[in-house]
Amino acid sequence: MNRAKVAVLISGSGTNMGALLYAAKQPDCPYEIVLVASNNPDAEGLSLAQGEGIATFAQSHKGVDRAAFDAIMQQQIEKAGATHVALAGYMRILSDAFVEQWDGRMLNIHPSLLPKYTGLHTHQRALDAGDKVAGCSVHLVTPELDAGPVLGQTEVAIRPDDTAETLGARVKLAEHQLYPRVLSAYVSRDKNPEWLVAQVRERAMTQPEADEISSHGMPCFGIIGGKKFAYVSVDHHGDGKTAILVKISGAEEQAMLIDSDPDRYYRPAYFGDGWIGIRLDLGDTDWDHIADWLAKSWRAVAPKKLTKLIDVAGEF
Ligand code: GRF
Known about the structure:
single chain, about 325 residues, Rossmann fold, Aspartate Aminotransferase, domain 1, 2 domains, seven-stranded mixed beta sheet, six-stranded antiparallel beta sheet, 10 helices, about 25% strand, elongated, binds 5-O-phosphono-beta-D-ribofuranosylamine
């Protein structure tokens, strides 16, 4: 299995990092930890990682400006060959350049049910507000603090006698379960048929008068009351593959495409020469390219009156 390579950044006890690391010991875990880095050379988590034979890096941020410090971290992360970054109690505001570098590939765990209680003292704030439930969230990191898309959450019931400490301890238990699961799901989402179908749907449904139906159990997109322009093949006859089928000009184009990249393109059984199958589960799908294919395929089946309208609209 080709596992995602994760660098974990910590500042303190590193128990979430420990949870990520031990989860990664399962042979079917889709990620591995390649580096544990810290801005605090005394972070307890560093010795846990070292004891498990994981590469570590620690340097105090004191006296180093933010951009320069993040550049040092970036260099270490690159050196370790990381494909993703997991923040786990990393108590540093990140520079925009660093966040941009890891756009869509950096996750964080936060001890509240976001969007509630960004920032610090989340448990006390939940208690002060008289909340009945607290919890934790894993989210993608964007430039605004704790505001990126939430990928997963766990609720934790608040008891009448809770203090910030007792509540925090239970939320930590929930964090340790949540983070490895969400990270695993996230790094392997581009092999997950449901996620792949959702990507196609998002793009197919932007075509004019698009409609989704199911054809022989396949998600299928067509023009309302008209012809179909895309099918998604999911595990067809148990082949384990996920692919999109779109219209092409004919046998010549089909042969040319298959010749150009035989792992990605194929002749879809029963569809004939007018269609091409494009694998979506190879892990390197260019979704803009798929959007172009969908637009082209739509155009190939759309009635003249619709394409004319689009052409006219395009001129303004
Ligand atoms: C956790 O509560 C996490 O949600 C927050 O910082 C804390 C880190 O704890 N971002 P640990 O270092 O993983 O024990």
